[in-house]
Sequence to fold (576 residues):
Amino acid sequence: MAPVVSQSSRCSALRSDALGLGLRLPHYDYLFEHSPDIDYFEIISENFLGNAAPPARNLARVCERYPVVLHGVGLNLLGHAPLDEAYLDGICRLADRVDAAFVSDHLCWTGAHGVNHHDLLPMPYTPALAEFAAERAHAVQRRLGRPFGLENLSSYVEFRESKLTEAEFYTGVVRESGCYFMLDVNNVYVSSVNSGFDPRAYLSAIDFSRVLQVHIAGHTREPNGTIIDTHDHPVCDEVWDLYAHAWKLGGPFPTLLEWDANIPSMPDTLAELARARTVRA
Amino acid sequence: MTHAQTERWLAELQARFSAVLRTPLSAAGGTLHTDLRSFPPAAIADIAPGPRLGAAERLGAYHRQYWLRLVRVLQEQYPLALRLCGAWDFNQLAIAFLVRHPPRGVDLGDVAEGFSEFIEREVELAGDGEVLKFVAEEPLPLSALREAARIDAAFRRVFMAPAEPRFVVSPDDAHTLPTRRLRLSRAFARVDEHRPLLELRARIFGSPDSDPVALPALLPRRRSWSVFRTARGIAHAALGDEQARLLELLAAQPVGDALATLESECEPSARTDLPERIQRFLARAVQQGFFSGFA
Fold:
């Protein structure tokens, strides 16, 4: 499938080596008082789709000062049901409102049979599902009229029915859809430990000319050894190493730190984000 | 495989996976935990064993995350109910709610929608009809839990309300005001309490603790509060009996009828300065955004 958005529009509003932060409620006071030096913010789209006044007011204030990109968790790209048209309309309106350089969501399913599980859930990696996903992602990007990035999942299981590796599935969907990679390096690490694959080999499969953004984040190790993608810790050394490797393979690319629980103060969060510059130097 | 076949395959596989997620946490042994034996065998059969863990153990990570995430939303949005119940009882209540009312919308915050109504209408009672069956040690009267949940829900509703233009009464409106009904703003709520629960809520709000707090004693009489949104967040202010009654009447009647009813209910000795009191209150109510316009 031919790309519907030209390469030249990639990250038009962001510097290629931009450092961004996931916008989170505990940082609002500091943000509005100090206007810290941050290249851009990423918002969780679903937090701003409703008509509640406070989120809309806060977002408007952020947009006055910073570029904003959208990151969704509710597209349900691999769900059995048709894509939710009303939801997509809302995402389009929100992207227009904040003039998002790009929009991203996950290569996963999030609900089934009318119930939303509010989690990013895995599927067997098969050629038929890759084709199905690519067609849907292509339609989403066309509808958005701006670059659409697909994020690789952090996974805790593999399916017996899988015929492809995760890297083969991911790269195949991005290639066939004409969309982009929203590459989460922490997720590559989490899945590699949980499933026992080589994370560097995974990165070698990525076409970095089609990477819109790279995510970094912390995670938690459960007592049974499973690594859970909790975004509640600093980025670990192994993930920093992997990030540096990705930079060597395909940098520069915009980099975004996600921190969703046990969120430290804004200065501490920014210090963690600044490590990206040191690590990739 | 055609797309229709892919969709059917996805529907079946996702139904099996969903059944795992929605299996309630077990409370056996005094802790809420994932019981791998409760997972449907067909869902386990879909999963390959990992480098260290078997299929069911691997699925268990999703199960724990599912319940943790959803229960946490309810804890955050119902802080008063949480602290009165304590985490152990509240979490079981939350799980019971989520089993009966699984989330359907895309906004995670909406998971808590309907929780107060669930406590109001669906929570089962213990044998004596007074005590919530989930409460094991210090019994919490169901009426107190319901009142706490109503208060939490009011704060949640006010916070989530959409922006509305400020209500301004023009000179033209003044002529027709008595025959018209006022529309209460969605960013305003009136709540009643029989125990000092709003003060308790203000004290515990934002605290990371989840230990149970003592239930405050009954007040000599019911108190009413206005809960409303300001530029700095959600505020609450006490309402006198007369003010609470007026708001109740205004929600149901044209302004003139409401004022006449209030006057008729007023003690003769308090009638003289009633218009002045009411005017002062209504001016404050308009200024604080209790109304959004005419109905």
Summary: Chain B has two domains: 1-114+151-160, 161-295. Chain B touches chain A through 50 residues (CB under 8 Å). Residues 161-295 of chain B form a domain with the Outer Surface Protein A; domain 3 fold (CATH 3.90.930.50).
